[in-house]
Amino acid sequence: MSWATCTSGHHHWGPRGAAGLLVADAGRVLLQLRAKWAHQGGTWSIPGGAIERAESAVEAALREAQEELGIDRASVDVRGSYVATCGGWVYETVLAVASAPMRVRDASESDGHRWVPLEEVAAMRLHPSFRSAWEDPGGELRGFVGA
Ligand SMILES: [Zn+2]
């Protein structure tokens, strides 16, 4: 995997774009504390990463959630997605709800996790990209978690 340069000149991780899994449950969202050594380490975000060859955004999000937080894909129900683009580079936030009791553990790239109530998310030290998505004027992510 490698960095991609978008038409605005930023470096983004993943030449095919990236995806993350946002899991909502009863007005809370599952956030992950990124490991200190990772890019933007020490910030809170959702599990996610670069989309691999021949993989859909949903598959990538579910794989990353399994690798980073041990989430069994059978315990989440995918409902949709929110797509953000930056200079032609795409990040897809896959929106899911917990469909079964979820077991979450900190694995690769994760220093912790928390189910955060909707109204507390903005006050956390968020990964800048996740903050942009969360604070999008359309409010798609907030609306999904609060539904
Ligand atoms: Zn960019």
TrEMBL record:
Nudix hydrolase domain boundaries: 14-141
Required cofactor(s): Mg(2+)
Keywords for this protein: Hydrolase
InterPro entries tied to this protein: Nudix_hydrolase (IPR020476), NUDIX_hydrolase-like_dom_sf (IPR015797), NUDIX_hydrolase_CS (IPR020084), NUDIX_hydrolase_dom (IPR000086)
GO molecular function: hydrolase activity
Pfam families: NUDIX
Signal peptide: none
PANTHER family: 8-OXO-DGTP DIPHOSPHATASE-RELATED, GDP-MANNOSE MANNOSYL HYDROLASE
Protein name as catalogued: Unannotated protein
